[in-house]
Amino acid sequence: MAAMTDVVLPAVRGGWWHAYVCPAHGTELAHDTLLSGAFPAGGAACPYGCRVDTDAVRGAWAALAHQACARRIRLLAYEEPERAVTLLGEYAERYAGLAVDVHAGGQDWMLRGRLFHQALSDAIWAVSIGHAAWTLAGVPGVEAAVPLLRSVAAAARDARAELVAQGRFDSNYTAWLNAAGAVATGALTRIAATTTDPAHGLAGSARGEAADPARDDAAGSARDDATDPAPGGAAADWLGGEYGVYAHVLAASAADGWEWEASTYYHGFVLRAYLLALRGTDPAALPAAVGERITAMIGAVAGIATDGGILPALHDGPYVRDLTALEWTELCTLADAYTSGAGLAAVGERARREAGPAYDGLDAHLHGWFSAPPRTGSEPDAVPVRRTFADAGLTVLRGNGILALLDHGPHGGSHGHHDKLALYLYGADTAWQPDPGQVPYAHAFWRNHFAGPAVHPAVLVDGVEPAECTARTVAVSANAVTAEVTDAYPGVRVVRHVEAADGYLLDVVTVDADSPVRLALCPAVPVETDGARTRWLGDETLHGWHAGAGTAPIVAYPGPGTADDPQATRTWLDWPAPDGTATFCSVYQAGAATVTGVTLADGVLVVLLADGTEHRHDTETLRHNGTEEG
């Protein structure tokens, strides 16, 4: 846990945090000075020894510093309330002096904020500030934060109206704008209920105010702005109004529980905003469709996590990042409070470890977040071998010490990656062949690289980037999935069958093309190969046997690391098919190997086992309907 250090607020507005990246190495810069109030002398540090000092990096540092200070104030509200009240008062003065108009420094595509380049960053910061004030209600001096809370609620409403006018209500921004409005209004209501000081304009609004900010008090909603703690409506409107949290939950997520971008990071991003916005509510009292959808969203996270808590970094999320890990610790704690059987204990524990020295223990203070016990979960008696999220187009297979995830869904919008029919492989605690994640967006070269096809374990045709596309599910069974894509490349059909077979994982890829193709194997761990066998190392070992028709031997070559450190050298594997039409068959086992070999002849893959038995798989049958019974 991080030591409680002093906090000095940044004196300047925040920029775009994604610019906090080394231009030479693509790595995020150091976070160790974010509470100091001053940009580091000599420039922000890169892990490779660079020091970077540009206007964009200074603005990015200020953005991260404001967020870090707000989070620390939120923690201090529990542990040193008097100090937290002082800092809130300082922030109220600073905001009044800095956020006097819409920020002119943002890029043209940005929905601009007031304290930051982006209104999204304003809202994330405001949620932390609002929760600090909420926790501090009743502590002398907290009333100084009232003008700040009123301002951020009004700014959130203005920004949300702009998004709605643009037809972008389902944006992940909206989740945080609603959370900022709900939390600021809830904090104002709490403060109003604990003060009679007319100097802050709260005495009238406290009269008869419900303790629960989520209560839909029609009389309170009808108050004019002179007495309403947050101009623009009560907390109930931010939750249940036409463009409130409840409406956004249903608009931005699908029936399978996934946020529409099918990105692990952005899914967790909006889910955390919802849970933060719902402080003080009864989870079981939410509108049924909303309450069930949030439960499904929590289940989607649990559904892709390994037993050791690894979350695949699908579609534009950080691979490993300490500040993101802090967010996951909070989300996991709130999820447990929201629904029984959330299944995120291992994810939370891993996130605490990944946060490292940045871990501050805030999640331990979040007991009593909701006004009632968790919703009753409906967890299955056993985790299924296959689980498909139909709307996101993600299938997870678990068995024999391997978690395999096949991406066969929509591209994912601006956060999508060119990885259709990519197969990601994990042990409980080892990412053998993971989604490599994404760097901070301001590094154009590495951002394009990690969104492109070259770093994903999928089929690449003639070295050309595929079109944005969606695969079609051919067949599913209790332990297998078969999917195809026909519009990634003109005239090219790719089919992938993945099966948790008896004792091993089976992967069969067939390609019909008239140009050279290759199947990429993308290890994130040391790997050994002789062209037909692979051995993937790590905390757990993965053995692979590979046989093909129309293919050349597997070739090893040096490649970049995952997005947390692109400069790390890894051994990458290319499996080429020079004439385009080919069948690639792989058999994987974790731990001790009982497979002794594989052969492919006349379309039949034979898996030889140490006990002398043979398993036969007809690749043509698998290609067409996913079952061996026809």
TrEMBL record:
Origin: domain of life: Bacteria
Organism: Actinocatenispora rupis
Heparinase II/III-like C-terminal domain sequence ranges: 387-539
Keywords: Lyase, Periplasm, Signal
Any one cellular-component term (Gene Ontology): periplasmic space
Biased composition (Basic and acidic residues): 209-226
Renumbered residue ranges of the record's region Disordered: 199-233
InterPro entries: Chondroitin_lyas, Hepar_II_III_C
Name of the molecule in the record: Heparinase II/III-like C-terminal domain-containing protein
Gene Ontology molecular function terms on file: lyase activity
Broad class of the protein's primary localization: periplasm
Lyase found in the keyword field: yes
Subcellular location: Periplasm
